[in-house]
Amino acid sequence: MAMNQIKGHNIYIGGIFSLKNKAALARADISHVLSVLHLNEAEKQETFEPYQHLSIGVDDVDDENLLEHFPAAIKFIQSGLDSGRGVLVHCAMGKSRSATICIAYLLHLQPAALTPQSALALVRESRPLCEPNDGFMQQLEVYHEMGCPDDVTDHPAYKRWLYRREVEDSVACGRAPELKSVRFEDEQPMRSQDATGPVIEYRCRKCRYKLATNAFVVPHEEEKKDTAKTSASAECGHLFLHPLTWMRPSLFPSEENTDADATYGAHPDDAPLSGRLTCPNPVCGSNVGKFAWQGLRCSCGGWVVPAIGITKARVDIAKQVNMSRGPRANPAIRLPPGMRAPEANDSGGRGNL
C-alpha cells in the first residue's frame, strides 16, 4: 500500500515499499525519513542517502520498549516539519510501529485535546489499516498520562512502568523480582505535584506506627458487574501500595541475614512470590497486610498486579494535621491571652472610650 498523508500535517505514513516509489516521495517533497524497524547498514547507505534519516530499531511485539524512543522521534519529525518539507514515518507494513510514532507526535502536539484512541482515529482517517499492537497502545497511554513530556526516561511514571514490566517478566518465570529492580517509592525524590492536597496517613492500629500516606497508594478499578446491587462485602478491604522501604524484610527476608552492600541487587533464592506484611515497629510486628507479586483480587473484585496491600481493618486512617502556622483557635476553647488570634476589628488598643 502506498504512503498516506495524515490530515492536517505534512507527515506521511507507509511501509518499507513506499521508499521504492521515488516519484511519490518527490511529489510529497520528503526530506526526512524516520524508519521504525531493524535495517542493515547496506540498506541505510543505498536507500536513505538523499534524506535526513533516523532509524529506530525495534520489533513489532508487545514487550518492545518503543516509549523510550518517543522524544527523539518527535524531535526528528518536528525538525522536518520546521524545514517546510515533508516527513515520512515508515515501518515494515505501515501498520503498528509507524502508527505508534505518529500517534505519539499528535499527542505531544495536543496533549489536552487528544487521547491515544482519538489520535489513532485521526491516523486511521488517512490509513485505515493502522493498528498498533496492545503493548504499544499501553505505552501510548503511559505517555499520555505523563503529559507527553520531552523527556520520559527520568519521569517517575516511566520508571514505574519499567518496574511493572520487570515484575511481570519475573513472575512469568515463576520467581520474585530481583531486589535491584524493585522501585521503593519512599526512596525516590518527591515532585512538587506529588505533595499537593491533603495528606492522609495510614497507621498500624496496634502501635500507631505510620506505614504510609496517600501519596503511595496504588489506585485500582472495581470489577464491573451487571447487577446494580452492592453490599458491604464488595467494598475494598485493602489499600494497595507501592513498595516502601519498611517492606524489605517481608519482600526479601534473606537480605536481613546478609551484608546489604554485598548482596544488593542479587536475587535471593528464597525471595517469596507471596507472603505477609508485618509492622516494622520492632516492639509490635503485627500482621498488617499481604503481598503477591503475581497479583491479588481485591474484595471489590478488582485485580491488582503486583499486589502489595495493607488490610483496612488493621490500620487507622487519619488526615495529617498541619501545625506549621501555629495553634488555631477553637471557638469552644478559650486560649490564654498570648495565644489568642486577634479579632477582625481589634485595633490593638482599647479603642475610643
Describe the model:
This protein has 353 residues and is of the alpha+beta class. It has 2 domains: 4-145, Protein-Tyrosine Phosphatase, Chain A (Alpha-Beta Complex); 186-222 and 234-319, Metal Binding Protein, Guanine Nucleotide Exchange Factor, Chain A (Beta Complex). Helices cover 25% and strands 16% of the residues. The protein contains 9 helices and 14 strands. The strands form 4 sheets. The chain has a 5-stranded mixed beta sheet with strand order 1-2-5-3-4. Strand 6 (200-204) and strand 7 (210-213) form a beta hairpin. The longest helix has 17 residues, at 156-172. It starts with a strand and ends in a 34-residue tail after the last strand.
Please summarize what this structure is:
Helix content is 25%, strand content 16%.
Tell me what the CATH architecture of the largest domain is: Alpha-Beta Complex
In the CATH hierarchy, what is the class of the largest domain?
Alpha Beta
Instruction: Count the domains.
Output: 2
User: Regions with pLDDT < 50 over 5+ consecutive residues?
Assistant: 227-233, 258-268, 328-333, 344-353
Q: Provide the CATH topology of the largest domain.
A: Protein-Tyrosine Phosphatase, Chain A
Give the number of helices: 9
Structural class: alpha+beta
